[in-house]
Amino acid sequence: MPWQPPVDALLADARVAHVVEDRMRWVDWGRTSEATGQTMHLGGMIGTLDVHGMTPALATLLTMASIVHLGKAAVFGNGWFRVQPTAT
After folding, report:
1. What one-character-per-residue DSSP string does 38-75 give?
2. CA separation (Å) from 40 to 4, 43, 55, 56, 73?
3. Cβ(69)–Cβ(79) under 8 Å?
4. Smallest Cα–Cα separation from 16: which of 48, 50, 54?
5. In terms of Cα–Cα distance, which of 47, 50, 48, 51 is closest to 13?
6. Euclidean distance between CA atoms 4 and 65, whole angstroms
7. CA angle at residue 26 from 41 to 16, to 5 degrees?
8. What angle do helix axes 56-67 and 7-16 make, rounded to 10 degrees?
């Protein structure tokens, strides 16, 4: 049976969580395919984002997404992130 996440509850959880410190920045880069010689424009966010008020359910979902390497250009080694609890 497929997993049926409680989407509405998770979205409500995400609305309650709040950014405390944003050390993110956008970075552009490119790569060239060795197979086709085609140049590709890539880019994405790099840095750290401190979020407080995250529920265990939301933290679990984000941790699951990080384990399966869910993100933009994941096949090129991009799109990864880490969820790490902090001491309060």
Report:
1. -EEEEEEEEEEEEEES--HHHHHHHHHHHHTT-STTGG
2. 36, 10, 38, 38, 11
3. yes
4. 54
5. 51
6. 15
7. 125
8. 100
In this prediction the pTM is 0.71
For 32, what's the count of Cα atoms within 13 Å in the CB-facing half-sphere? 2
Q: What is the pLDDT along the chain (88 residues), one digit of tens a residue?
A: 888 889 999 999 999 999 999 999 999 988 888 889 999 888 888 899 999 999 999 999 988 888 887 666 777 777 778 888 876 6
Which residues pair with residue 44 across a beta bridge?
27
């890539």: which residue's tokens?
Answer: 42
